User: What shape does this take?
Amino acid sequence: MSAAMTPVNKDIENLLRSHRLKRTSARMEILSLLLGSSHTISYNDISDALGDNFDKSTVYRTLNSFEEKGIIHAVNDGTGGIKYAVTREEGREAHVHFKCDNCSQTYCLPDTKIPNVKAPRGFVIKNSSLLINGTCKYCS
Amino acid sequence: MSAAMTPVNKDIENLLRSHRLKRTSARMEILSLLLGSSHTISYNDISDALGDNFDKSTVYRTLNSFEEKGIIHAVNDGTGGIKYAVTREEGREAHVHFKCDNCSQTYCLPDTKIPNVKAPRGFVIKNSSLLINGTCKYCS
DNA sequence: AATATAAATGCTACACAATTGCATTAATAA
DNA sequence: TTATTAATGCAATTGTGTAGCATTTATATT
Ligand SMILES: [Mn+2]
Ligand SMILES: [Mn+2]
Ligand SMILES: [Zn+2]
Ligand SMILES: [Zn+2]
Assistant: This one.
């Protein structure tokens, strides 16, 4: 409570304030996890990392709030259960996600954009998501 | 039971026999639904169409059998719950799926192939799935 | 046609992800 | 400091899918 605030904490507070979200410890800790992760994380990852400090519904509601505000985005890698990652500048455009068959982590590839495809007559494209499976750079 | 067999039923029987699956009424009816559908269908679609003639586990197991044999393929359109479609000749290659925001049906686009993407160094691609959202040709 | 065998089915229970209503508590504004 | 509003915890509930096991059925064999 009285310890000097780390820059990271300041960043998180600003992020919350800029989206008009109250600064609660659940949000601070969950957002901190998300910001510090190189890959997408699930409810279970959060639950494991934070113990049972927060109720399941709080965690899910927190993730939903972040997503509504655009702070994070959801990734469905087909393993049942949604994963999330912070949306960084380069990743605002629709980017590819990569699921490693070996370590089963799912990564944002913010610089790998989804190519345009031409749908058949009558199909109007709004947006698209591309999931790649394979071996990630840490496993190959 | 004694009515003349329709050609469609013969097709279905042959399909089952060619994959060494026993001809049961669950399989006949579920495969008939799948063959007759222009879009992917879910467990719930099957359950609605067939009433409670078949147990939930039978339906799921039937779908899993069909998928293992390659008769159908699974599509995850992010709505929670897997959908299935018969794999037709043109669709054996990885093709795009289209989820309509209006009618919320999900379609195979067997002629729209998934473009190759170049992943960052170290990421080895095995396969990929591309889901497009928008308005389908029946809704536009 | 009767029988044997292996597979499919129905039932029940369970697993897991996620959501909801509601009373309580905490964060911010005034 | 108080009032207001939003967030939280808890318990129950929903939704999707799986699993064990006794029973039934499809098919091959006699
Ligand atoms: Mn991403
Ligand atoms: Mn398809
Ligand atoms: Zn990996
Ligand atoms: Zn439509």
Remarks:
- DSSP finds four helices and six strands in chain B.
- Residues 22, 24, 26-27, 54-58, 61-62, 65, 80 of chain B lie near DNA strand C (CB under 10 Å from a C1').
- Confidence is low (pLDDT under 50) at residues 1-5 of chain B.
